[in-house]
Amino acid sequence: MRNKILVVGPPGSGKLTMLKELMGTVSPVTGSHAGIIEEYHIKNKYYEARVGVWVDEFLLEGDSTQLSADRIEGLVSLPEWTESFCSNEAKEVRDSIKAVVFTLRHGSDAAHLEPQLKVLEQLVGMLDNDNWDGSLICLQKGHVSPELAAQLDAVCFDYGFEYISHLVSEQGETTGYDRLQEAIEVLGWETQDEAKETPVPDPILTSPTLMARSSPSLHASSFDARSLSLSPADSDMLKGLLNDDLDNFQNIFDKLKIARNSNLSDEQRTRLANDLAEQLIGGEVPGH
Phi/psi at 39 (nearest 5 deg)? Predict the structure, then answer.
């Protein structure tokens, strides 16, 4: 069952601010925000649920020269991000998404937004099938004029997104983070009892966009054992294995780097270790 929220946008578009407004607090983050995983606890008079929130990022034109290297490490353009998220490898993650929150930088206008939503049509098409009852939301960072808000709202409507800004409604309608909370909570989320019975895909193991946080390429000729603290003998052994099965060890190497460099929970590290062990020995790990 779909029980996850995907929050995606360029750096500086208010993703962490949104999480803080919804959940009260988020874990400290340095560098890229791609790969952040949080849990949103929904509790109202109708139901109680814990919803996973996955955060990802992409680069807009000019970001690579205007932002620090650590802030954009591993990030790609929106077309590349969309292509990877629509790949077969990311299907399990896609199939768990019930809401997409696309965050807009302060100062975004219709001329910049429309090409971005056009690129996202491929992903929306994969989500928006007969079985999908989710929601597509564009969340504006900062305040906008009524004229600009109307233009952005029209573009979002054309592509099936609800536009949410912090502009005060003259009709008394809910706006900003209050409206975002309403839009999320009105969806049919699994209750806590139902969620216990449903296996949850791990984006760390299945999403190519999160895997992109690690080394983008690996070649036997340039393998650096120091990045994994390997001895020279172990390094030579891995080089030989890489020559035999480069694709498999590219995947394993990426996951090892994620394990070393990410703020994973103990449970996620255990799943990652079991997954790597299966790949290395070619069989199932006892108890996994």
Answer: -125, 125
Tens of pLDDT, residues 244-270: 554 555 555 555 555 554 555 566 666
pTM of the model: 0.69
What is the domain range of residue 230? 214-281
Same domain, 191 and 260: no
pLDDT tens digit sequence for 150-209: 999 999 999 999 999 988 776 778 889 999 999 999 987 877 565 555 555 555 444 444
The CATH number of whichever domain residue 31 belongs to comes to: 3.40.50.11960
